């Protein structure tokens, strides 16, 4: 794996009570297009992209890279969770950065918490002791609540993209001890 580190990628699918985290497949293409063309999702990631542009540009198997988990519910993709190296970007906490996107119809059911928690567990097993960073806009109340639920501790607040941003860190040792 060239993303978070030397772990074998992709790992075997990871099941929770309601979800499966797995590598992307060709059958996920339409959901990737819907995710990145959604105006609601785009609100939190700097804007959405036109659906026709995505249809032309999206590879047959989108998101097939180390560190990207497809979040599946009842056999269909509802979003993604990512763990990407961000060593060179401030704050330099090492480890990886957690990211997640869910289709709007999946919001409000606790899926993000469930998916991110199991991804963090996987990361802690694959990379013992390495921290994980999470960054979000402070105005994104749902993301701020999720960070707190998952045990992220504030590192800093800063101005970017014309808004106050929040950065926190999660440590496997702190979350289990």
List strands and helices in order, with pairings.
Elements: E1 14-15, E2 20-22, H1 29-37, H2 39-42, H3 51-57, E3 68-73, E4 76-85, E5 96-102, H4 111-126, E6 132-137, H5 141-150, E7 153-160, E8 163-170, H6 172-176
Parallel strand pairs: 5-6
Antiparallel strand pairs: 1-2, 2-3, 3-4, 4-5, 6-8, 7-8
Keywords:
8 strands, eight-stranded mixed β-sheet, globular, alpha+beta, 177 residues, 6 helices
Short structural description:
With 177 residues, this protein is α+β, with helices and mostly antiparallel strands. It contains six helices and eight strands, in the order ββαααβββαβαββα.
Notes on the structure:
The structure is a single chain. The protein has 177 residues and is α+β, with helices and mostly antiparallel strands. The protein contains 6 helices and 8 strands; from the N terminus they run ββαααβββαβαββα. The chain has helices at 29-37, 39-42, 51-57, 111-126, 141-150, 172-176; strands spanning 14-15, 20-22, 68-73, 76-85, 96-102, 132-137, 153-160, 163-170. It has an 8-stranded mixed β-sheet, sandwiched between helices. It is globular and about 40 Å long. The model has no long low-confidence stretch (mean pLDDT 90).
Strand content: 25-35%
Average pLDDT score: 90
Separation, N- and C-terminal Cα atoms:
28 Å
Tell me about the largest β-sheet: 8 strands, mixed
Q: Could you give the order of the helices and strands?
A: EEHHHEEEHEHEEH
Number-wise, the strands total 8
Chain oligomer state: single chain
In DSSP terms (H or I, runs of 4 or more residues), the helix count works out at: 6
